[in-house]
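Morning!

This is the sequence you dropped in the shared folder:
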Amino acid sequence: MFLGNSDVIDDIEEADVDDPAPVREACTVLEALNRISGKWAIGILLNLSHGPVRFTELERSVPGISRRMLTLTLRNLERDGLIERTVYATVPPKVEYRGTAMADELYASLKGLTAWAERHRDAIARSRDSYDQEQAAAVERG
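The structure's back. Tokens below.
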């Protein structure tokens, strides 16, 4: 079950000082959410959802990412168990990345989130416009 931010904070605050397990578990959840909510991770994971991809293909398919940021993000995703890196003994070396079963499960959740965003896109835009107009009117009133 997913813990909301306030649930995680409550868990940390109520943690037994002698037993660091609840804090460690809460931090792991936050770290995982931070990892996949980063600027590049979802784009990389979506590209890997279709099968193995080489580094240069990823670099071309994720607009705006630098080589260094791609390398760092791939390392972190590999460390978290979301991708696997395979190095082939060729000259020059060939490196492929593929999503793990855990990444496939995450992809299914991301598809649901994407469908939700598409269903509510117009309502969100209307809400933003309404809010912006109300804020502008409040500023004018002083």
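Headline: The longest strand covers residues 83-88.

More detail when I'm at my desk.
O.
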